[in-house]
Amino acid sequence: MAINIKQLIFGKALNPFQPKLFQSLALISFFAWIGLGADGLSSSCYGPEEAFRALNGHPQLAIFVAIATVITVFIIALGYNQVVELFPSGGGGYKVATQLLGKQAGLVSGCALIVDYILTIALSTASGTDALFSFLPANWAHFRVMVEAFCIAVLVILNLRGMKESIQVLLPIFLGFLLTHIILITYGIFQHGVGITDITVHAVQDTHGLITSVGIFAVLAFLLHSYSLGSGTYTGLEAVSNNVNRLAEPRVRTGKVTMLYMAISLSFMAGGITLLYLFYNVVPVGDKTLNAIAFQNILGFSLIGHVGLVVTLCFEAGILLVAANTGFLAGPQVLANMAVDNWLPHRFTHLSNRLVTKNGILLYGLAALIILFVSEGKVSWLVVLYSINVFITFTLTLLGLSVYWFKHRSKVSKNWPWRLGFSLLGFIVTASILLVTILVKFTSGGWVTILITGLVIGLCFVIHSHYGYINKRLRQYDLLLAPPLDKKTLAAPVFDINQQTAILFLNEDRCVGMHALLSIQKMFPDFFKNYVFLSVGEVDIESFSGVRALNEMQVAVEKNLDYFVEFCHQHGLATEAYTAYGPDVIEKLVELAEKIKDKYPRHIFFASRLTFDEDTLFNRILHNETPLVLQRRLHAIGEQLVVLPMQFDRVENF
Q1: Total structural domains within the chain
Q2: Which residue, 485, 495, 654, is CA-closest to 572?
């Protein structure tokens, strides 16, 4: 029953070697637009509002902010088109900064993205709940955080089932939001079609009067301040470049089409809503969002108008929920990419039976919940934290592209001056927004996101240093314990299943397996006549990037097993080997153990694990605890597993 319930909630396990699995899981442009573009589209629910509120008594300037917003959306989107083209395997801002500016710049970009996607979940959920509570009784407000926590829990479960399934579930909400808002924005603007010219003329005249009064630089500073506080509008545009590897072939074309969908839809929504604020003289009223006020003015106060408003705001709340889902879709990919480069624990590269990065999804869900409870779901505070981090990544990405086009100007097409100029323009725009946002909002919460991101960067440095030291020593131990074998081939000794058999679980570190094998011979001299090796090739985020990567992983596993078999044969030891592949190493190892345990009646299972002088939580998080978990699982089926410690800093004394 427990298994059935688990399958009902999370779905059946997927076979990573199933033919055409990649094609079935890959996203076409339309689904990518929904899953990865909803974050950008949903920002029209809060980004334009923040910019309009900052105009503070000068609403006529909104028309210039709207124009600047539309232009900026296309500048950033076209910049990320170049990222999709240059990095078709995904990785986005993290890989761009790493490969074009250096590892340290990549680390900063990656950490900014990690915090950004956590805030994507928290901010979108909080903003969606605000939209929902805009038409509910005021005394219900204390239920907001509980509703937000429930929404995050639902999204965690959906994403543990798989990326495509979560998108399909949220598809009706996305389409409903798109339809209602296109209709309202189009109707609202055309209703004022006759007066658009007059409004534009008045805006120019009022702006001219303001310049005469306070000076052009003061007006420009005022406009830049408002424009920068609406920077939340542009968030989410980087999500496609982070997940190009999840797109349908041809990936680059799919990515570019998706970016076009995102740019057109976001510029229409953000620019159109900003104009509605101006056309309908929207002013803040209580806890209502400016969108709610503008749409109410368009729909009127009749019963039908009220129903229409409720439906529209429900779809706004829904699209923000879909946007929060983008954090779960794109965020774990950033964790996985950084874990592959040893900046984060390797467990973030692991996939579940549904071939999703389970550990990353759970981490993002927990972190978003903490942020929501600490901030009490205050959107205005979360927007500040959010916009700073995403523009760190934007700025580094566009700087990296500028460096690339300049360095490769002689190797690329004649259009390189345009590409370089465009990248530099994007860099100047995003860097300016970042600088203004930090200066203006530093004391209002900006320092918090800088502190959090700085702490994450520091932690990554510690983890990277630790893994670097461990990997260096393991390579030294490979030379000590697992040197190259003689090329001579000896006849394999006869395997007698009735003799004492040592069954040894292996991992990818050859020296660890050799340490275990030599330890068994040292502890039980001449006792075991047979040796059986079990190995599981782990399908993680790196090996699941394509058929070629899966094949390379299989070859590496087989090569490692062949080494142990040949070593035993050259030392007169009878041996056999078994292998399996899958995302859940523990499950596959237990399956192998159950499969062969009756074949060798006189057997003992062995495994080896790295141990350190200090058994700290830090070491346990960074290093796989597979042997201990495997021991508990084998005990449950009545089998004994001896875990042999490999004291990391004392191998030379072995």
Answers
A1: 2
A2: 495
Q: How far apart are CA 332 and CA 531, in angstroms?
A: 40
In a domain, 464, yes or no: no
What is the percentage of the chain residues whose pLDDT exceeds 70?
A: 88
DSSP string of 101-140? H-HHHHHHHHHHHHHHHHHHHHHHHHHHHHHHHTTS-GGG
Tokens at 400, concatenated: 């990296």
Q: What SS3 class is residue 432?
A: helix
pLDDT tens, 53-71? 878 777 777 888 888 888 8
Angle at the Cα of 244 (from 241 to 247), degrees rounded to 5?
135
**Cβ(166)–Cβ(156) below 8 Å:** no
Residue 580 β-bridge partners: 536
Give alpha helix (H) positions in 525-616.
547-570, 585-596
For the whole model, what pTM was predicted?
0.79
> Are residues 318 and 204 part of one domain?
yes
- Candidates 356, 335, 242, 271; CA nearest to 64 is 271
Residue 620 domain boundaries: 501-653
Q: Is the dihedral of CA 402, 403, 406, 412 positive or negative?
A: negative
Amino acid sitting at position 98: T
Q: Which residues pair with 535 in a beta bridge?
A: 506, 579
Asked whether 10 and 161 are in contact (CB, 8 A), the reply is yes
Q: What's the token pair of residue 524?
A: 């039980």
What's the CA gap between 399 and 547, in Å, rounded?
33
Q: What is the dihedral of CA 83, 86, 89, 93, to 10 degrees?
A: -30
Beta strand 501-506 pairing with 574-582: unpaired
Does residue 552 share a domain with residue 412?
no
pLDDT band (50, 70, 90) for residue 325:
confident
Distance from C-alpha of 62 to C-alpha of 546, rounded to nearest angstrom: 47
Question: CA–CA separation, 616 vs 622, rounded Å?
Answer: 10
